[in-house]
């Protein structure tokens, strides 16, 4: 049975623009967040608290946090280390998303530490967050690594066994470089569900190899009802070669609405926001509904 509702967490202000050559102004970032809220966003990953020398697009994290329209959505900040967590906490965000990387090589390149060190740091920040800020954990490169290749399920489960000794409010499985197929989603979500049946799971999918939406549907069929997406399908990781393109928010909402699954998003307004973002970035973005237009939900078609 399909769920009646699913949540789309908007990540364009962070993952969407972090690899762009065009660095958006503070006003443009807040306008993007405003447009996402107007289109239906209730949770938004607004920035990351990382080294501005490595990710200059996120250099104004504190300024973004200070300028947010409070009370209109829940705001999430990404942290990769203790300093990033402390900055997110001081910025007064609603949630912090802390990344643990499944691949040793990618962990060292992305966060400057081993996976074991990442797990220990997750335990530290999760305990520090208790009663102060919501804390979710993302398992990055959960489906494959640009440097090591396949990430076997036993490796994933072994890392999660240790990491989830301190459970997150939500676990996000991230297809960071867009290598997963629907069968991979089914297998990995199923393995996590069997071991931790009560743990909320979110999927962070990229459409790098044109499987992102099929993977989202596999997630739905596996019982997942929360997904990251980015207006226009913009996105990429500065530390993962050839990692491009989140699933597009408006395209994902369209697909789910046609199946009778409510997301709370207005597809037309999301497409309009995606076209606005495309103009700000100065190049074509991957989203399709923003180009083709929407169509009535299946329940309304006659």
UniProtKB/TrEMBL annotation:
Q: Name one GO molecular function term.
A: metal ion binding
Q: Which domain of life is it from?
A: Bacteria
Query: Where does the Pyruvate carboxyltransferase domain start and stop, copy by copy?
Result: 6-271
The answer to whether keyword GTP-binding applies is: no
- Which UniProt keyword terms apply here? Lyase, Metal-binding
Tell me, which GO biological process terms does this entry list?
ketone body biosynthetic process; L-leucine catabolic process
Question: Which InterPro entries does the record match to this protein?
Answer: Aldolase_TIM (IPR013785), HMGL (IPR043594), PYR_CT (IPR000891)
Family matches, as SUPFAM superfamilies: Aldolase (SSF51569)
Protein family: Belongs to the HMG-CoA lyase family.
Xref: PANTHER family: HYDROXYMETHYLGLUTARYL-COA LYASE
Protein name per the record = Hydroxymethylglutaryl-CoA lyase
- Write down the species: Salipiger thiooxidans
Phylogenetic classification of the source organism? Bacteria, Pseudomonadati, Pseudomonadota, Alphaproteobacteria, Rhodobacterales
